[in-house]
Write a structure and sequence with these properties.
5-stranded parallel beta sheet, 20 strands, alpha/beta, 8-stranded mixed beta sheet, 530 residues, globular, binds NADP nicotinamide-adenine-dinucleotide phosphate
């Protein structure tokens, strides 16, 4: 008999809820977490300025109406410390700590066909067996530091934003370089600029960003909102993004240009990426419509950044707006008006080397005291590939995914019985409200496991044909949009040598949920039960 019913890898939003959901269903469960605290992404990414770009009312668990009523968020977009406090509160409130093992990295998981169970090895040298293996490792956990020649010779400290020192870093009076201008770089740069003697921002690709218009939550508004939280959650479950946003419902190209500009300005003033990007139905599928929005955003950069040369470098032109994750910031572009901030274009003059005293590009050298990498992640598949997961016949998951990550419904990889991936490749995951998608996956997996057991089955495995058909559908939907035109981490383009596969499912949260429910209702269609 296995030691556990369910072994969970990771204790971020997904792992925490998996412990709660499986335990409440009467199963024995243990989550193994490499960090010294729970929270996953919200534990590791404790860099200054880290903030969620989904509103707190949406980016929170819905499984407990009492939790939802009792917890009060202080801000529209919560900062990292508040999200971490929330997750610790959830673990306290539901008594989850006994089933979460911190400071323990899962190194390997091997399917034992004879006993129909997984053997899970951890870096404390122990092995546990479990009937089911749940990956809750997250989509943005395996951080990447580019291999820059000479980095090991740099005399000052260097940091990756996703492994930020928990006691913080004091950059006062220092010359600091930040490499990377994605969501993270855009958040951390203004914080460093406020204290550093000089900040150099090394930009390879200019990015689009909308304002947050963040602010404190008004208790009166909160009371009113919470009175109807349940029906709001229902709308979120049925929505496209996992957040009920209201677009105009019209294509931008069918509307008079002045009216489009007015609408975009209203949404720009209100702040937030989803309502802005969702304003018109054709922006993410039609190049001309997309260009209208892109040019509107470039105009905002032109009017914010005083130096026209710097403004020119900051204008995003390399990809359609929205095809990479839309950044959100209230102060990034204005930061370039500070005299202690320099934008360095490493597209035209790439980084050539790092020396003890700084960083050289093809045409200049920058003296630096500290270096910050905001260079992103081997997303979606990277963290799981770092674990030696072996399925039927000892097949390594990394080998199965050699041509790109895949899983039936984005949750179950064929050839890996009794293994499920929360927000895996081929599910809405990062193109949705992650918390809501995590809840949907965990509940679906729990129901599948319970149903299989009550029907007398000990194994549940996706059929290769079902996986193939699902991934073909994921690709077809993606290629009906502008998303694949960007060299984004959605397609793995940010990792040298990674196969270009569009991993998230763009069919929408509501339709995806309906599809998963239909598969369950049809007796887990596409799965072999044994
Ligand atoms: P990212 O979006 O992948 O951005 C990485 C940045 O580093 C890009 O500017 C990239 O340039 C640059 N870069 C990578 N390798 C480089 C190299 N070898 N040389 C020079 N520049 C290099 O990573 P991220 O900013 O950490 O964000 C990842 C995701 O995390 C986001 O898309 C978002 O989903 C999530 N996130 C969310 C929030 C939020 O909720 N507000 C905050 C932070 C992160 P290129 O563009 O040219 O590749």
């Amino acid at each position: 008999m296995a030691d556990l019913d369910v072994a969970v890898v990771g204790a971020g939003f997904a792992g925490i809820y998996a412990v709660q959901a499986f335990r409440s269903a009467g199963l024995t469960v243990r989550a193994f977490e490499a960090g010294s605290g729970i929270g996953g992404t919200w534990f590791w990414n404790c860099y200054p300025g880290a903030r969620c770009d989904v509103e707190s009312k949406d980016y929170s668990y819905s499984f407990s109406p009492e939790l939802e009523q009792d917890w009060s968020w202080s801000e529209r977009y919560p900062a990292q410390p508040e999200v971490l406090r929330y997750l610790n509160h959830v673990a306290d409130r539901f008594g989850l700590w006994p089933d979460i093992q911190l400071n323990t990295r899962v190194t390997a998981a091997t399917w034992d066909a004879e006993r129909s169970q997984w053997t899970v090895a951890t870096d404390d040298g122990r092995r546990r067996t479990a009937r089911f293996l749940i990956s809750a490792v997250g989509c943005l956990s395996a951080y990447q530091v580019p291999s820059l020649p000479g980095l090991e010779t740099f005399a000052g400290p260097w940091y990756h934003t996703s492994r930020w020192p928990r006691d913080g870093v004091d950059f006062t009076g220092q010359r600091v370089g930040v490499i990377g201008t994605g969501s993270t770089g855009i958040q951390i740069a203004p914080e460093i600029a406020a204290v550093a003697e000089h900040l150099y921002v090394f930009q390879r690709t200019a990015n689009f960003a909308v304002p947050n218009r963040n602010g404190a939550i008004d208790p009166e508004w909160e009371r009113g909102f919470k009175a109807d939280y349940r029906s709001y959650r229902k709308q979120a479950q049925e929505s496209f993004l996992g957040v009920p946003i209201t677009g105009t419902g019209r294509p931008a190209l069918a509307e008079p240009p002045a009216s489009v500009q007015r609408t975009l300005m209203e949404r720009w003033q209100a702040g937030g990426g989803m309502p802005f990007l969702g304003a018109y139905t054709d922006v993410l599928v039609d190049r001309a419509a997309n260009e209208i929005m892109a040019e509107f955003m470039r105009d905002r950069i032109r009017e914010t950044v005083a130096d026209p040369f710097v403004a020119g470098l900051l204008l995003p032109r390399a990809y359609p707006v929205g095809a990479k994750r839309l950044c959100q910031s209230d102060d990034y572009f204005a930061m370039f008006n500070r005299s202690n901030v320099t934008l360095v274009d490493i597209r035209s003059a790439p980084i050539s080397s790092v020396t003890p005293s700084g960083l050289g590009t093809a045409d200049s050298f920058y003296e630096l005291d500290a270096l910050v990498f905001a260079t992103g992640f081997d997303a979606i598949s990277g963290a799981l590939r770092q674990i030696d997961v072996r399925g039927v016949g000892g097949l390594p998951l990394a080998e199965k995914w050699a041509a790109g990550p895949r899983a039936y419904l984005g949750v179950a990889p064929a050839g890996f019985p009794n293994m499920f991936i929360v927000t895996g490749p081929g599910s809405p995951s990062v193109l949705s409200n992650m918390v809501l998608s995590i809840e949907q996956h965990v509940e679906w997996i729990r129901d599948c496991v319970l149903q299989a057991a009550s029907d007398g089955y000990s194994t549940v495995e996706a059929k290769p044909s079902a996986e193939d058909a699902w991934m073909a559908h994921v690709t077809e939907v993606a290629y009906s949009t502008l998303f694949p035109l960007a060299d984004s981490w959605y397609v793995g383009a940010n990792i040298p040598g990674k196969p270009r596969v569009f991993a998230p499912y763009l069919g929408g949260v509501g339709p995806y949920r309906a599809r998963c429910d239909a598969v369950a209702a049809a007796g887990y269609e596409g799965f072999a039960l044994g």
